[in-house]
UniProtKB/TrEMBL annotation:
Pfam families: BPD_transp_1 (PF00528). One of its GO terms (biological process) is phosphate ion transport. Belongs to the binding-protein-dependent transport system permease family. CysTW subfamily. This is Phosphate transport system permease protein. It is found in: Cell membrane. It comes from Actinacidiphila cocklensis. PANTHER family: PHOSPHATE TRANSPORT SYSTEM PERMEASE PROTEIN PST (PTHR30425), PHOSPHATE TRANSPORT SYSTEM PERMEASE PROTEIN PSTC (PTHR30425:SF1).
Length: 328
């Protein structure tokens, strides 16, 4: 008696599970999409407003808008330029970044890898409190405390490093209301932002990476240099760009400390130069309609500088991200 084997049955193809779209998911997706579109609309509206008002001022300017050092929109014909303002804004921000970024990274690493828990917690709490201090408070502290105490530092820099030109002080008796002082004040202001974001990014480093490095005999510094910093590099750059954004647009603190003058000088210790935000807040109230258009034109340049800086930072982050291990 012969038996025939039953025909082999083919396995049923895997059916993709249908995603059930819930009302809450649809509402959340719509709100998220609408928020993104609203942000683009707001940015476009700001750009259009600044461009229209700036075009009215630039069309009547009889000087070179980008290179003229004189800011006199009240004259007929008007003459104004932003070279001094652009120089002061960029230089003070560079000074602030050069001081704040290394210190912020060091504090973040100390809290996460060196300090005991009883000490790291209070330090992180104090850093959070510094981020909540209003700008005008920083400005008052800078004008009443930082400026008088930096006079001796300025004289010391002029005595030992005056040969570098940038630390040469023309008038030794002048107050320390200079771009150098503004840079130090901005560094203190952006330090909490960079520290907090860097600390959170460093905490996201996989512990397996650090443990593997320790198992291979690496020291604590080698673990940080080879495992922590490469992974957190893109986040640290993002934190630095957030701090730079505040430094570029800071207003009241700079206006309280800086003695602005329409003079372009490489001497960082002299009370010369100015920034976009400081010039706008100082002259907006007394300016006529055309003068306000001129101030808005300077605001447009600051807006473009900020966009360029953020765009460059985004490109750097994307290029560094593939080497950081953040996608693993």
């Amino acid at each position: 008696m012969t038996t025939t084997a039953p025909p082999a049955t083919r396995p049923e193809p895997h059916r993709a599970a249908k995603t059930v779209s819930r009302p809450g998911d649809r509402i959340f997706a719509g709100l998220a999409r609408g928020s993104g579109i609203l942000l683009l609309v707001v940015m476009a509206a700001i750009a259009v407003f600044l461009t229209v008002r700036a075009a009215h001022a630039i069309s009547k300017d009889h000087g070179n808008f980008l290179t003229t050092f004189e800011w006199t929109p009240s004259l007929n014909p008007p003459v104004f330029g932003i070279a001094v303002l652009a120089y002061g804004t960029v230089v003070s921000s560079i000074i602030a970044m050069a001081i704040a970024v290394p210190i912020a990274i060091g504090i973040a690493l100390f809290i996460t890898h060196y300090a005991p828990r009883r000490l790291g917690g209070p330090i992180a709490y104090v850093i959070d409190l510094l981020a909540a201090v209003p700008s005008i408070v920083y400005g008052l502290w800078g004008a009443l405390f930082l400026v008088p105490h930096l006079r001796g530092v300025n004289l010391w820099l002029d005595h030992y490093f005056g040969w570098t030109y940038i630390f040469h002080k023309e008038d030794p008796n002048s107050a320390a209301r200079s771009l150098f002082t503004v840079g130090i004040l901005l560094a203190i202001m952006i330090l909490p932002i960079i520290t907090n974001v860097s600390r959170e990014v460093i905490n996201q480093v996989p512990k397996m990476h650090e443990e593997a490095a320790l198992a291979l005999g690496a020291t604590r510094w080698e673990v940080i240099r080879l495992s922590v910093l490469p992974f957190a590099r893109s986040g640290i750059i993002s934190a630095s760009m957030l701090g730079l954004g505040r430094a570029l647009g800071e207003t009241m603190a700079v206006a309280t400390v800086l003695s602005a003058s329409p003079t372009l000088s490489g001497h960082l210790l002299d009370p010369v130069g100015g920034t976009f935000s400081q010039n706008i807040v100082a002259k907006f109230g007394e300016a006529d309609d055309f003068g306000r258009d001129a101030l808005i034109a300077s605001g447009l340049v600051l807006f473009l500088i900020t966009l360029l800086v953020n765009g460059a930072a985004r490109i750097i982050i994307q290029r560094r991200k593939e080497y950081s291990g953040a996608n693993a």
